[in-house]
Amino acid sequence: MKTTINKESAADFLMSTMEVCETKQDLLLAFWFYWVESVTLNSLEFQKVVANAAVNKWFLIELKKEETECRHLLSHYPNTAGKDKDWLWCQTVSKLMSRFPKALLEAAKKREQKPRTTKVAGIRIEMSIINQN
């Protein structure tokens, strides 16, 4: 017996989110969170990636490329409108779910290493100095 978790496709997610979002910014924010959730394993990583400007910039650049491709496709089919146009946008933009900037994500998820210190009667002693002796 095979057990799998079926997560809705990105295009389906975008279509259903499009129906409830009032603005495009709301839709893009929801998609950004959906994408970040797909590339992180826990809430701490999620927070770090969401707050990382470099990853966000990469995502917006890639999104713009996909939207340009969508406009190009729509130029070949000028009579496309309504739900069909929305579905084409969702299908095109959902390609982002299969892309990620590995180096940027690793840098965003990296835990900051603070120097370990030992407190001795109000005097700060760094462990690296103690370990050298």
Keywords, separated by commas or semicolons:
single chain; 133 residues; mainly alpha; two-stranded antiparallel ribbon; 7 helices; 6% strand; elongated
Quick take:
The protein has 133 residues and is mostly helical.
Describe this structure in words.
- With 133 residues, the protein is mainly alpha-helical.
- Helix content is 64%, strand content 6%.
- The chain contains seven helices and two strands; from the N terminus they run ααααααββα.
- It has helices spanning 10-20, 24-39, 43-50, 53-76, 82-93, 102-109, 127-132, and strands at residues 117-120, 123-126.
- A two-stranded antiparallel ribbon has the order 1-2.
- The longest helix is centred in the middle third of the chain and has 24 residues, at 53-76.
- The termini are far apart.
List strands and helices in order, with pairings.
Elements: H1 10-20, H2 24-39, H3 43-50, H4 53-76, H5 82-93, H6 102-109, E1 117-120, E2 123-126, H7 127-132
Antiparallel strand pairs: 1-2
Helix pairs in contact: 1-2, 1-5, 4-5
